[in-house]
Amino acid sequence: MFMRGPHDPIRIERAEGAWLYTSDGHKILDAGAGAVVINIGQGRKEIAEVAARAIGKLDYVVPVWTTEERERLVERLTRWTPAGLSRFFFTSGGSEAVEAALKFSILYHKVRGKESKNKIIGRKPSYHGNSLAALSVGGSSRRADYESVLIDWPKIDTCYCYRCPWGKTYPECDIDCAQALEKEILNQGADTIAAFIAEPMMGSSGGVYPPVKEYWPMLREICDRYDVLLIADEVMTGFGRTGRRFAVDHWDVTPDILIGGKGLTGGYMPMGMIAVKETMVEEVERGKADFMFYTYSSHPVACAVADEVLAIMEHERLVERAAEVGARLGATLKEELSGHPMVGDIRGTGMFWGVELVHDKLTRVPFAPEKKVTNRVLGAAVRRGLFFYPASGMAGKAGGDAMMITPPFTIGDAEIEYIIRNARGALDEIYPSL
Ligand SMILES: Cc1ncc(COP(=O)(O)O)c(C=O)c1O
Q1: SS3 readout for 8-57
Q2: Residues with Cβ < 8 Å from 35, sequence gap 6 or more?
Q3: Order of strands across the sheet with 85-91?
Q4: Centre of ligand 1 from the C-alpha of residue 231, in Å
Q5: What is the pLDDT of residue 397?
Q6: Which amino acids bring their CB within 6 angstroms of ligand 1?
Q7: What's the pLDDT tens digit per position in 51-97?
């Protein structure tokens, strides 16, 4: 995706709340919150002021020193993350944070004399970012052109029931979903596995999928049994998106490493982070191992902005709002769209909803990938003034189609009605041509 300057197709001039304004006078409701980023809505003056003040004071300090902005953010984050996850390492985005989590896992075992524990188990489908190690640990079609250089790490099938990889239905399948991890650890040899990484609720590679409630507690138990670190990639689901502060809070599971990005700054600054168990960081520090920073780790301006974004979330109770308004959004989506002949499934929680598009509603057969159904529906939606985040459906390897309806937490009933009306309009427009 290289920029082409003046030839780029849509030119956004400004934004406010959930609305984008184009330079040719149109407005678009951003029901994807960009790439599932803009949790608190756009155009907040107080954040612009905080950023201006921070830049006016100092622009850069090496990451090994501290500043007021860094300290304030760490203090606030300690109240957000699950208990015990109180050491933070900051990055410029999600992929860098995933890299940091993978490297820290390997380093942690090495410091404890377990150097052979150096493989990371991921899932398919999944997406953990675009850099080479993040692509390696993920299981998405975005790997395709780089397979020859990716690290050969093991993958297990993802827990989902819409098209169960084991051909079963819930609740019969949930045991198999988690046990697939145990089987793979034993198959590889536990002394070779550093960590297991997963999105607590699948995002773009599965068109939103909350797992069965037994799944993550079982993953936690299995990881503990084999001294394998459990990494929750909450780049998309974190900071209130699913109606709880973090998706793992739905099941009271504490991962060893939690990865954040996107909602951490709500799109006002590029930033990612890992939150790690205090005891693990202490062990690495005692071993005198050096965990190298990135040049822009904990950039003071990004820290100041993240702190203000989270302060706004707290004052306006936006996590609670994501749960309440999100429940209405989900119920209305189901009510109004589930009867559509293209809609196979609607699932989600909080402000995190996926609409799976299928060729055959009864048999759940997906559309052929070359039909590019999601892109066509998205084109029709944008022409009507609606953006949603395009995603793969649960068809796994074959691709599949899904719309992610993941708006800013600040939307109200009028915007919900607008989303539904225009999503249905876009589906109705494309359906006859399929
Ligand atoms: C679950 C997950 N992890 C990691 C990433 C990578 O984040 P970034 O694009 O900020 O590098 C993404 C991006 O969509 C994501 O959804």
Answers
A1: CCCCEEEEEECEEEECCCCEEEECCHHHHCCCCCECCHHHHHHHHHHHHH
A2: 262, 389
A3: 85-91, 272-277, 257-260, 229-233, 193-198, 119-124, 155-157
A4: 14
A5: 54
A6: 35, 93-95, 98, 127-130, 199, 203-204, 233, 235-236, 261
A7: 999 999 999 999 999 999 999 999 999 999 999 999 999 999 999 99
Query: Does pTM top 0.85 for this prediction?
Result: yes
Q: Where are the beta strands (DSSP E) in 100-180?
A: 119-124, 155-157
Q: Tell me the C-alpha distance between 263 and 109, whole Å.
A: 30
Give the atom of ligand 1 at the shortest distance from the alpha carbon of 262: 10
d(CA 167, CA 364): 12
What is the 288 CA–ligand 1 centroid distance (Å)?
31
Residue-wise pLDDT tens digits, 30-42: 999 999 999 999 9
Ligand 1 geometric centre to CA of 429 (Å): 31
The residue-averaged pLDDT of 424-433 equals 97
Can you tell me the distance from the alpha carbon of 146 to that of 96, in angstroms, rounded to the nearest whole number?
Answer: 18
Listed by start position, the domains of the chain span: 5-43+317-433, 46-315
pLDDT digits (tens, 9 = 90+) for 287-298: 988 899 999 999
State how far the Cα of 165 lies from the Cα of 169, in Å rounded to an integer.
10
The C-alpha atoms of residue 75 and residue 188 are separated, in whole angstroms, by 40
- Rounded to an integer, the average pLDDT of 373-400 is 88
- H runs (alpha helix) in 287-352: 300-315, 318-337
Assign domain 5-43+317-433 one CATH number from 1.10.220.110, 3.50.50.100, 3.90.1150.10, 2.40.110.10: 3.90.1150.10
For residue 141, pLDDT over 90 is answered with no
Specify the pLDDT at position 177: 82
Q: Tokens standing for 342?
A: 């293209």
How far is 434 from 429, CA to CA, in rounded Å? 10
Residue 276, SS3 per DSSP: strand
Ligand 1 atom nearest 98 alpha carbon: 4
For residue 261, which atom of ligand 1 is closest to its CA?
A: 10
